[in-house]
Amino acid sequence: MEISPENGDGGFILPNAHVDVIRSHRDKMAEKSAGFEVHTSEDILYNVRGLPIDQTVEEKNGQRVVVGKPATELAPHQAETLALSRLSSEALS
Fold it and tell me: In the chain, where does DSSP find H-type helix?
């Protein structure tokens, strides 16, 4: 998944911040029994170091705002957990 302001941090990650990574998706199994669209979220990783990258200051609507992309500093097992959660999300779609 490409990082964008809609699915990222909205420019709020500061150096040395710690974040939780959450996966949100439609739950098609629950939709079958409920009869309507069901969305669910689950925590994938806790308290990982967030890294702001490519930050620039831009002017929007007369205000200066910081725009950038978030990244995380992950151990190999955390990267594997994140990759597997993405695969399971794609399988549910």
Answer: 28-34, 76-92
- Ordered by start, the domain boundaries in the chain are 18-92
For the whole model, what pTM was predicted? 0.57
pLDDT digits (tens, 9 = 90+) for 7-51: 555 556 676 788 888 888 888 888 888 889 988 888 999 998 877
CA gap 70, 52 in Å, rounded: 5
What sign has the CA pseudo-torsion 49, 17, 6, 30? positive
Which H or E run includes 88?
Answer: helix 76-92
Please choose, from the candidates 3, 11, 78, 16, the residue with its C-alpha nearest in 3D space to the C-alpha of residue 50: 16
